[in-house]
Amino acid sequence: MNKKNHPFHTRSYEEETAPKIGVVGLGYVGLPVAITFAEKFQVIGMDIDKNKIDQLSKAIDPNGELSKADLQNKSIEYVSEPYKLRECTYIIVAVPTPITNLNEPDLTPLENATKMLGENLSQNTTIIYESTVYPGTTEDVCIPLLEQYSGLTSGVDFQVGYSPERINPGDQEHTFKNIPKVIAGQTPQALENIDKLYNNVIEADVYKAPTIKVAEAAKIIENTQRDVNIAFMNELALIFEKLEIDTQEVLQAAQTKWNFLPFSPGLVGGHCIGVDPYYLIYKSKTEGYMPTLIPAARTLNDAMPAYIVRSLLELVMLQKLNVKDIRVTMLGMTFKENIADIRNSKSIEIVNMLKQLGLSIQICDPYAPSEINGLSLTPFNQLKKSSILIIAVPHKEFLEKTEQEFFDLLVNDHGIIMDLKDIMPTDTNHKNHIIWKL
Question: Is the alpha carbon torsion for 14, 15, 17, 22 positive or negative?
């Protein structure tokens, strides 16, 4: 397939005065990127999900992250067909990079997007990948596909770079504009183009990585570092439970030292921290090194739902509760607070385990879909009294509740509150209720 002579736009970088920006993938990463660039440029927002495009065209964010005001009056054309990308001077790729059931990289969305770009690639376009990948993916996987499907030569007919995304869903403080941006290019020309582009909209520093592989690796270790540190905290929680020591009290004491890192135990889900380390593990294995620390951290964090369920059963036996009479209330099903994203949610894993045990479960989450795994969610004010309350995700709506409102969800003086995010005060002691914390 050779498209070198196709009749579409052929530009020179020097002559381009009003570049048009394409963004492929309008999810939690791509949509904020498109909205930000649309403040200064014409933008083509492309996604293969036609329903999403229809909603965005009506100024509705399917993910609930951006308001109508954020989406209205922006210079964006939302499309599901890729041919409009031929008009773009820059194309930013922000498609998902999930893992398989075997915890190995699934590059299918990235490869499909890249093939599509190749078929619609104009000369003198700069393509920037923001999707999280293992080091070497951009140059070893993406660029060959772009060349194959376009008939053009990278570094000559078009440029390619990488700039890892750092979007934090639900975070209104750290945004695309004010988070330092790492960039890299396959050639000096690519790096210059990308630096010029991002400096138009980024208010923070733009850091030029020496190579694309360095930029890819930097992104991977940002999330792997958090995974390892949270695993350490989770292991401490397991140890301190045996020692009958309050983990949070230990951490509060340790944090009086100036260089103690402020991590806490908890569930690790979502599309980044619980996924990205597997990309580094995979690449390391292909190069002949079998990592030990990173897989151990992944194993420990993935085992936390089972540990919580085992602890619940131990508390049930301690309180001599009849399993047949138990109702469990679960507060929070998304993978983190104040967002609608349930991808890789460990709360869902806990619910699935409790269902397998035959326990009656009611779920409340103001952000999650109205039904999950065949269970309908219940508004907070419609929850029935229960024997066990699990506070899994600290949504702001839950943090606004009083201690009494939480206790009112329990049916008797021997009810159990499992506080997975330490939102109940340490000195809580109410009518013989058991307060269990990580």
Answer: negative
Domains in the chain: ranges and CATH: 20-210 (3.40.50.720), 229-302 (1.10.1040), 305-437 (3.40.50.720)
Residues with a catalytic annotation lie at: 272
Helix (H, G, I), strand (E, B) or coil at 216: helix
User: Taking the alpha carbons of 276, 277, 282, 287 in that order, is the dihedral positive or negative?
Assistant: positive
pLDDT tens, residue by residue, 243-256 = 999 999 999 999 99
Pairing state of beta strands 371-372 and 375-376? Answer: antiparallel
Degrees, nearest 5: CA angle 186-191-193? 120
Question: What is the C-alpha to C-alpha distance for residues 193 and 188, in angstroms, rounded to an integer?
Answer: 9
CA distance 254 to 215: 33
Q: Enter the pTM of the model.
A: 0.90
Dist. CA 69–CA 90, nearest whole Å: 26
Q: How far apart are CA 123 and CA 154, in angstroms?
A: 10
Q: How confident is the model at residue 12 (pLDDT cuts 50, 70, 90)?
A: very low
Residue 373: what residue type?
N
Q: Write out the DSSP string of 88-138.
A: -SEEEE-----B-TTS-B--HHHHHHHHHHHHTPPBT-EEEE-S---TTHI
Chain centroid, CA 227 distance in Å: 13
How far, in whole angstroms, is CA 118 from its chain's centroid? Answer: 27
Residue 434: per-residue pLDDT: 86
Q: Work out whether the CA dihedral 336, 340, 346, 350 comes out positive or negative.
A: positive
- State the pairing for strand pair 159-162/181-185: antiparallel
**Which of 395, 333, 340 lies closest to 367 in space, CA to CA?**
340
Residue recorded with tokens 């998902």 = 96
Pairing of strands 388-391, 371-372: unpaired
Cα 43 to Cα 91: distance, rounded to the nearest angstrom: 10
Please give the single-letter amino acid code of residue 305: P
Q: CB-based contacts of 51: which residues, under 8 Å, 6+ apart?
A: 62
For residue 428, what pLDDT band results from cuts at 50, 70 and 90? low
Q: Quick one: DSSP state of residue 186?
A: S
